[in-house]
Amino acid sequence: MTNNIFRNQYFGLSYVLPAGWIEKYKGPPPSDTGRYVLAQIQPGETYKEPIRGTILITAQDMFFTPLPAANALELINYTKDNLQDDYKVELPPTELKIGGQSFRFFAYGAPVAQLHWYIVATQIRCHAVEIVLTSRDTKLLENLILDMNKMTLPAEANPTGGLGGGISPVCIKDYATDEHMIARTDPVSTEHRFNPVPVRIIIDKEGKIKHIHFLSAFPDQEKAITGALRQWKFKPYLQNGHPVEVETGVMFGHALHPTNTAARESATE
Predict the structure, then answer these.
(1) 73 exposure class (CB count in 10 Å sphere: 0-12, 13-18, 19+)
(2) Cα(178)–Cα(184) distance, rounded to whole angstroms?
(3) pLDDT tens for residues 196-233?
(4) 25 in helix, strand or coil?
(5) For residue 130, which of 97, 156, 106 has the smallest C-alpha distance?
(6) SS3 92
(7) pLDDT of residue 261
(8) How far apart are CA 104 and CA 73, in angstroms?
(9) Helix and strand tally (H, E) in the chain?
(10) Distance CA 197, CA 253 (A)
(11) Which end of the chain is more exposed for a tag (fewer CB within 10 A), N or C?
(12) What is the pTM assigned to this prediction?
C-alpha cells in the first residue's frame, strides 16, 4: 500500500482506495488450503460518513482449495449454494465488468444483523481473487462497486479463465507428473510431521525450477523440499511451438480435505 493505492505485483492488480479509507491491519499468512488475505480496508479517522463498511481483498489458490470448484465462477456458485440459514441471497450470481475485465458478482445479507455482503470475483494466475464488501448500507456498497472501475487488472482476468500466459507463466494444475518430468527426487526429512505442505513452483523454458513458494511449511520441511525440487527436471512445455514457463502446484504430505466430486458438479450448475 503506497499513497493510498493498493498494488499487488504478482496479480498485476492496482486499486485506488476510496477517499478516507485506509489499510489498518495486515492480513495473516496464507492457510494450508491456499487462502490469502491481500488487504483489509476500512474507513479511517478522516472518513465523515455516518455509516461505514469494510473491503476485504482475498485470493484463493485454485491448485489447493479443498472446495469443489475449479475457477472463480464455480467458487461463487458454491458460496451461494452453501449459505447458512441465517443468510439470504439478495442478488444472484451474474457477470459484472470492473476496470474493463469480467467478474462474477453476488450479494447476500443477514436480516437479523441488518448486514449486507457484495462479492466480486475473477481469476488471475489460477487464483480466485475476491473483493468482499460489507456494510449495513447497500447504497454505500453500490458506490464502492462503481468506484472499483478505476482498478487496473491484467488482460487475463476472467472468472473461468485467468490461466496465465503472456508475460506470466502458463498455469497448469497437477503438471508435476511422470508425463512431463525427466528427473525427480523425493525430499528426505529427519522429522516426522503430518501436515500438508502446498508448494507453488515456476518452471523455466528449459524445464528447470526457477522459483519456489511455500504456502505453509515448517523450516525443516522447506529445507528438505527445496533441496529435492532443485534437482527436478521437466520437459520444456511448448505453446504454439515455442517453449514457455509453467506455474503449477505440488502438495507434499496430504491435503486437509478430499474434493467432493458430486458437490463440484452442483457448483457448476
Answers:
(1) buried
(2) 9
(3) 899 999 999 999 999 999 999 999 999 999 999 999 99
(4) strand
(5) 106
(6) strand
(7) 41
(8) 6
(9) 4, 17
(10) 6
(11) C
(12) 0.89
- Kind of pairing between the strands at 170-171 and 127-135: unpaired
Question: CA 32 to CA 66: how far, in whole Å?
Answer: 10
Task: Tell me if 266 sits within 8 A of 81, measured CB to CB.
Answer: yes
Cell output for 146 = 462503481
CATH superfamily of 5-150: Mog1/PsbP, alpha/beta/alpha sandwich (3.40.1000.10)
pLDDT at 258 (0 to 100)? 45
- CB under 8 Å to 113, separation ≥6 — which residues? none
Could you tell me if 26 and 39 are in contact, meaning their C-beta atoms sit under 8 angstroms apart? no
Enumerate residues 6+ apart whose C-beta is below 8 A from 242: none
CATH class of 170-267: alpha beta
Q: Which pLDDT value is given to residue 254?
A: 66
Alpha carbons 183 and 81: distance in angstroms, whole number: 43
Q: Distance between CA 11 and CA 27 in Å, rounded?
A: 17
Q: In a 3-state reduction of DSSP, which class is residue 224? A: helix
For cell 502446498, the residue is 198
CA distance 20 to 44: 6
Domain ranges of the chain: 5-150, 170-267
pLDDT averages per 10-residue partition of the chain, 269 residues: 89 93 88 94 86 94 94 96 95 95 96 96 97 96 94 95 93 95 90 87 97 94 95 95 96 61 43
Query: Which residue do the cell numbers 505442505 mark?
Result: 197
